[in-house]
Amino acid sequence: MSLTLEYFYQKTSTKYNLKLLTTSVNLNKEITWVYLLDDINNSSFVRGGELIITTGLTTKCTQKLDHLINAAYIKGSCGLLINTGMYIKDVPSRIIEFGEKNNFPIFSMPWDTHIADIMQEYCNEIISEQKVVLQKNSVFLRSILRSSLKEDIQILNQFIGFRVVASKIPLTILHFAQIELDNIHYYICSTNSIISTDCNIGLSNHIESIDSMYQYYMQAYKALKVSFIKGQNLMHFSDIGLYDISLSIDDKYVCEYAHKLLSPLNDSELLNTFRVYLECNGSVNLVANKLFVHRNTINYRIHQIKEQLCLDLDIPENRLKYLLALYICDCDNINF
């Protein structure tokens, strides 16, 4: 699991006399390094995720300090630690307000606390954690490639209870392991890590067996693809229904057959009505309610569909065949 500001603050706040000044901000942010920054000209070296320490040597409480803090925030640092006492007696209220407004954690630390001590402790633990993370990521990759080693079992057992999460773009979430495969990002994490999202995400079922990691990986992949098909940001594998079968079909002939079945319906309105009708198991009332049209209109459209397809929709096998054909075409048409 990634190291966070919350973790270090709880662990070392008493030891180093740290004080959180922005009390309403979220400390659940990953920390990647600790960087001493007193000259704003050096802010270009900040890569993102660092805890920035400043003494005010060149900025003091002037506007230069405001510019330095703003630069640290823009560069994506996880927070700011101000070493008070020598150059900055007290942190100005405007600085604290900036942190509160932008959910940017700001701490203070007295001058008699040695910066070198806190930097050494934090960086040593970060380096150790990075080694562990690399190991976990390697185990994760081997598990979905079905090439796990005997020594992987201990780490794999720690995956149990989590989910595999898939996304086309990198996610800023707390995770146990992560890999990128075929331009898709996969994570081992809990559902609680995903509070809200503006991007498409697919989630597997909860991991119950380490021998089935490939299946959980495929579940996340399929759920991600269906999230694009349905236009939903968050998609659980347990909710994809027949798309599970559709996405498992890798046969050009089957795809061509599905397109051929539906080819007589070249009217998008009829095609959409047909889809909803099949998904509602032939209930005209449900279709009318979902499409916000009168049931007589739905009956008329269904009559047209039956005529164009030369199809008896009272036969359950026919309804299932055409619903599966629709889903196969969805999977074939999606630009993924």
Automatic annotation (TrEMBL):
Start and end residues of each PucR C-terminal helix-turn-helix domain: 270-327
InterPro entries associated with the record: CdaR-like_regulators, PucR_C-HTH_dom, PucR_C-HTH_sf, PucR_dom
Span of domain Purine catabolism PurC-like: 18-126
Gene3D superfamilies attached to this UniProt entry: PucR C-terminal helix-turn-helix domain (1.10.10.2840)
PANTHER family: CARBOHYDRATE DIACID REGULATOR (PTHR33744)
Protein name stated in the entry: PucR family transcriptional regulator
